[in-house]
Specification:
heterodimer, A: alpha/beta, Rossmann fold, 2 domains, six-stranded mixed β-sheet, 10 helices, disordered N terminus, B: alpha+beta
Chain lengths: 305, 849
């Protein structure tokens, strides 16, 4: 686990390396829940690292939130040689805690690839991906799996639920895979927020598309992950169901402080977010705060130019 | 449409290969059986053509009847007949020959036994023209009362050389002989596993208890006289009592006798091959069902594009046809390998089979192809019909997934009817006397399996729920998901489990039955045998018996109170062959507890017979009635019933005194002797006395009751092992079915598996999920199999109550071991599908279409 490169990178990286090394000896433990890293004010972080350096007594308003996840100069190239396709080209981006970020871009812009790489579902060709305090490139498949289980929530466009399980069982699935029991109060709150209380014992085939997506949302939320990635969560829904889903995600951020990153091609959906990151040809081309559907649409139109 | 069929096949190579494997193994079993038995048959034809070389005409008495073992019982001919034949015009040489029991004793003093073949002594003609059968490998032909020639196989195995002094066992006292020569039989070293000791004719007549008689008279014709003409002339001369055959007819007749054996072997092996194919057909039904369900949309789309239902059906059945053909070809190839293996097994147990080329007859090829294709196409018919019933609109609908089984009412009806019909056929076969009972039992058993197989999807869900409970409870989320998966498509789970059900049903049935037989033997011994020692011939059931001399010497020992010899023979009554025991009534009643219902066994003297109660009742006989018994020697004798006794499962249907037996049978060998020690002698003393008295007869095994029981159990266990081995293939095929189903399920659920991986399930957890599903399916099949197997065993035990299987015994530990083994095997079966599941590409799986 340890390498000369990480030692040379400075005290912070060294600490991280040691923590991970210790976890290598205790593989049964979650690599992230144990050994909380103390980040000292003088920590030398990699470039782009936004560290809240507030100390007690300092009365300043926290202007920039800590990043739940960030990409540092990541590239993703599929294939080799002449047939290689660069899906992501030196992308650096960060997603702040407790915010709802939308990733937009035309087809083939690399937005889904970015989400897959950030979520630890795909490996980057170059660069680093961080979730919380962990760099994903260093993790084994097993550690990545456990990281996904503990720190990441997912909502896909379709096929989010296991057909054999009821809605309730689907919601509890990530926790049960981890061998944990859901926190009852939290579970009830989440279920209440999704508005599914009466439908919990139904199987996915008995639920509408919108209900299924909201079950997926509840499932992502119930494990209290560091970050939720949603890949076109409203793509298969009609406008009413889509609006419900977006409302649910918005509430998750506002009421529970959940971090959500959503890939979408729908300006209306992006309008619900706090921020929109625009991608084109595998690069970040724009970053919009406080978006509205109109602003997003205008920006999107310029891609055609 | 054919191009599409081929494309469809190529698109599902792996799945179809797994399906084909089930057919390949079954076909291989069938064709291997045919190749093997044809080869044996060819071998014997060669051997008998060799043995009858030089004989133009052979004379023997007409066979009175065949023994249950398939041999023909013939009375010897008076020696004077030879002179009568020699006087017939056209006869150049007429010489008698005899054949009977002779057993070698190895250098270490142990009797030489065979793997079931006879141990024979025979005469060698002094005429060179009649010596063509045996080819001298070394030394000289036996001459004089002191010489013996040995077959090359025995000589090699026992390290016998020309000039060695060796000991031989006969009906009479044993003797020592000098090996004069080693005999081969053409290319073969012996005659299909039999050990052969050859003497000159007078010596052979002496030691084989044939003084003044011949078993066969062989004739060489004068030049220019045809065998057939001479045969007719001799027949006319000596009359219809005797059978006169040309050399060729003799060879053909001998081959026919062996043919009965190879046919039996053929049918026995084919029965097990049929079981394997039956199990395989369940797998084909399942695989085609799953593959076609996965292609529902594709087929519906084709229907939208205008393909007729008949075209779709033809395409699917065409696919099955090709799979069947390919599997048959592969099975045939594998079958030849199996035949080679079987031949090696036979050689290993001592049957020298000359290197005849393996006989792959056109019939074998035809059977292999027909069976392979018929099973595959037949089994794919139901899934094909179901799949092609798809409405065109299905192709346009979102969300496929196999449709639920709606027709459960009809399934219940059909399944119940088949089960009931099978049960009826089974019980009719077991408990009534009509028609072909074995066939009835077989069809009935198949019907029960099929019926339960049809019903099983109805019970698969609740059973999987119950059997999966421990996994859901203790194996974490993978266990819970595994249970859910096992429950989700009951038809798939059920038909996978049903294949295993058949295999394990038969295995546990055999196990229960064997256990019951052992328990019954113990009970019979405890209840009916008073004897302290039981003497049996070594070599098991195949052994002819041992010399009565052993019993005679034993009876003289002061430590021994009583010796009851039992000789077994066959006679005919109303055209049917029956078994009779020759006994000394006084000694017999002292060692074997026999309840006499009427009359008295002490009255059983020459001209009398004692009859078992049930036999007497069925013939309406009572003491004083006469039974017209047709013996090999002496013809039909009116024997008067002196006693009627109660069945104790040892005393047999008919008893005659030894004096009577000696008059009617050529061979006098004790098949068993019961010995009672003198109460005044200690066990050590009596044992020593028995050992001393039988020292000269190394083929006599002395057992006390416990040892005898152990020996009987060992025999049952040996047979049990053989059955397990033959049923193993069916079980293996069933596990291939589990692999197949799980691989197909994994391929069908790739997205779901990807989702689970995305949600944080480790590869190990995915593998565990597949593993527990395999175990749940296996437990389902095993449970059903055990229930059916135990039921079959219980039924058969009741059906054979009259034949001495009085006890029903459940081998609980063995059955539990089966369950455990099945679970372990399921874990192994899950390795391949588990690996496939763990390899799932998360991104691909969750990608939207």
């Amino acid at each position: 686990m340890s390498s000369s490169r990480s030692i040379a990178a400075g005290p912070f990286t060294l600490t991280l390396t040691l923590t991970l090394s210790m976890q290598a000896f205790r593989p049964w433990e979650n690599p992230l829940s144990s050994g909380t890293l103390e980040i000292s004010p003088v920590a030398v972080g990699p470039p782009g690292w936004e560290v809240s350096t507030m100390s007690a007594g300092e009365s300043g308003v926290q202007t920039r939130a800590r990043a739940a996840s960030r990409a540092v100069g990541i590239s993703r190239v599929y294939g080799t040689g002449d047939t290689s396709v660069t899906a992501l080209d030196d992308v650096s981006v960060e997603f702040e805690e407790g915010r709802f970020t939308a990733v937009m871009g035309p087809s083939g812009s690399g937005k889904s690839t970015l989400l897959h790489c950030m979520a630890g579902l795909d490996r980057v060709t170059a660069g680093e991906v961080w979730i919380g305090d962990v760099e994903l490139g260093r993790l084994s498949d097993r550690q990545l799996t456990i990281l996904r289980r503990e720190q990441v929530g997912f909502v896909f466009q379709a096929y989010n639920l296991l057909p054999t399980l009821t809605a309730a069982e689907n919601i509890a699935l990530p926790l049960r895979i981890a061998g944990r029991r859901p926190d009852r109060a939290w579970y009830d709150r989440v279920v209440g927020a999704v508005g599914l209380r009466g439908r919990l014992e139904h199987r996915p085939s008995e639920l509408s598309g919108g209900e299924q997506q909201r079950v997926a949302g509840a499932r992502a939320l119930v494990a209290k992950p560091t970050i939720i990635f949603a890949d076109e969560p409203t793509g298969n829904l009609d406008s009413v169901a889509g609006a419900e889903m977006l409302g649910f995600m918005r509430r998750s951020v506002d009421e529970f402080g959940q971090t959500i990153v959503m890939v979408t091609h729908d300006p209306n959906a992006a309008g619900h977010a706090d921020r929109v990151v625009f991608l084109a040809d595998g690069r970040v081309v724009d970053d919009m705060a406080e978006p509205t559907a109109e602003l997003v649409l205008d920006r999107m139109k310029r891609f055609g130019d | 449409m054919w191009a599409m069929t081929l494309k469809g096949l190529l698109a599902h190579k792996v799945r179809l290969a797994l399906t084909a494997l089930a057919v390949v193994l079954g076909v291989a079993f069938v064709s291997g059986t045919y190749v093997f038995t044809d080869t044996i048959h060819q071998t014997f034809t060669t051997v008998f053509t060799q043995v009858t070389k030089g004989i133009d005409v052979a004379v023997r008495t007409k066979g009175s009847y065949t023994t249950p073992q398939g041999g023909t019982v013939r009375a010897p001919m008076p020696a004077a007949l030879k002179e009568q034949i020699a006087a017939v015009d056209g006869v150049r040489i007429a010489d008698g020959s005899v054949t009977g029991y002779t057993q070698f004793v190895a250098h270490d003093g142990k009797p030489v036994t065979t793997g079931g073949a006879p141990t024979l002594g025979l005469s060698v003609s002094r005429y060179p023209e009649l010596q063509a059968a045996g080819t001298l490998r070394s030394g000289t032909r036996p001459h004089g009362p002191d010489q013996v020639a040995v077959d090359a196989q025995t000589a090699r195995n026992q390290d016998f050389h020309v000039g060695d002094r060796i000991k031989l066992l006969f009906q009479g006292p044993p003797g020592e002989y000098t090996v004069s020569g080693i005999l081969g039989f053409g290319q073969a070293d012996n005659l299909a596993g039999a050990t052969l000791a050859a003497f000159d004719l007078p010596t052979a007549q002496q030691v084989l208890n044939r003084v003044g008689t011949y078993d066969e008279i062989d004739v060489v014709a004068q030049h220019g006289v045809s065998a057939t003409a001479l045969r007719d002339r001799i027949q006319a001369q000596i009359g219809p009592t005797y059978e006169v055959l040309t050399g060729k007819q003799l060879a053909a007749d001998d081959v026919k006798t062996v043919g009965a054996f190879t046919n039996f072997l053929n049918y026995a092996l084919l029965t097990f091959a049929a079981v394997a194919l039956f199990v395989g057909s369940f797998i084909i039904v399942n695989t085609f069902g799953i593959i076609l369900a996965q292609r529902t949309r594709e087929m519906a789309l084709l229907r939208c594009l205008g393909a007729s239902r008949a075209q779709m059906l033809a395409s699917v059945l065409g696919e099955a046809l090709i799979v069947g053909l390919v599997a048959s070809a592969a099975g045939l190839g594998l079958g030849v390998l199996i035949a080679i293996g079987l031949r090696k097994v036979f050689q290993a147990i001592g049957a020298s089979i000359p290197s005849t080329a393996l006989q792959v007859e056109p019939r074998t090829i035809a059977v292999a192809v027909v069976v392979g294709v018929a099973v595959t196409v037949g089994a794919s018919l139901a899934p094909a019909l179901r799949a092609t019933r798809v409405a065109p609109v299905e192709g346009l609908r979102e969300g496929t997934g196999p449709a639920a089984d709606h027709a459960s009412g009809r399934r219940l009806l059909i399944g119940s009817v088949i089960t009931a019909a099978g049960l009826a056929a089974l019980l009719a076969g077991l408990f009534t006397n009509h028609g072909n009972r074995v066939l009835g039992v077989g069809i009935g058993a198949a019907g029960v399996f099929l019926g339960i197989g049809v019903l099983s999807p109805l019970i698969a869900r609740p059973m999987a729920r119950v059997l999966g409970w421990p996994f859901a409870r203790w194996a974490g989320e993978p266990g819970a998901l595994a249970r859910g998966n096992a429950e989700r498509s009951p038809r798939r789970t059920a038909s996978t489990a049903a294949a295993l059900m058949i295999g394990l049903g038969l295995v546990s049935f055999v196990s229960v039955f064997a256990s019951s037989v052992k328990a019954s033997v113990t009970r019979v011994l405890d209840q009916s045998v008073v004897a302290d020692y039981i003497l049996t011939p070594s070599g098991g059931q195949a052994a002819a018996g041992f010399s009565p001399q052993a019993a005679a010497r034993l009876a003289q020992q002061p430590e021994i109170a009583s010796v009851a010899e039992v000789r077994s023979g066959a006679f005919k009554l109303d055209g049917k062959t029956q078994q009779v025991f020759g006994v000394d009534p006084a000694a017999f009643t002292r060692t074997i507890r026999t309840d006499v219902k009427s009359g008295s066994l002490t009255n059983l003297t020459a001209g009398g017979v004692a009859v078992r109660e049930d036999v007497a009742n069925s013939h309406h006989w009572r003491v004083g009635s006469t039974v017209p018994m047709n013996f090999p020697i002496g013809g039909t004798q009116p024997e008067q019933i002196k006693a009627v006794y109660v069945d104790n499962h040892l005393n047999g249907p008919y008893l005659i005194p030894l004096s009577e037996y000696e008059q009617h049978y050529a061979d006098q060998l004790d098949t068993v002797a019961f010995v009672q020690a003198n109460p005044s002698a200690t066990p050590e003393q009596s044992r020593a006395a028995v050992t001393r008295a039988t020292a000269d007869f190394p083929n006599v095994q002395v057992k006390d009751q416990a040892e005898y029981r152990q020996q009987q159990e060992n025999q049952v266990n040996q047979l049990l092992t053989l059955f397990y081995a033959l049923l193993a293939l069916a079980v293996v095929i069933a596990f291939i079915g589990i692999v197949n189903t799980l691989v197909l399920s994994v391929l069908e659920r790739l997205r779901e598996l990807g989702l689970l991986r995305a949600l944080g399930m480790t590869r190990g957890q995915l593998r565990a999920m597949i593993r527990w599903e395999a175990v749940i399916i296996a437990l389902l099949g095993t449970t059903l199999g055990l229930v059916i197997g135990v039921f079959f065993g219980w039924t058969l035990v009741h059906a054979l109550h009259g034949q001495g299987v009085t006890e029903f015994s459940m081998p609980v530990r063995t059955l539990l071991l089966f369950v455990l083994s099945a679970a372990v095997a399921a874990v192994v079966a899950a390795v391949l599908p588990g690996r496939r599941a763990a390899r799932v590409d998360v991104l691909q799986a969750i990608a939207t279409e």
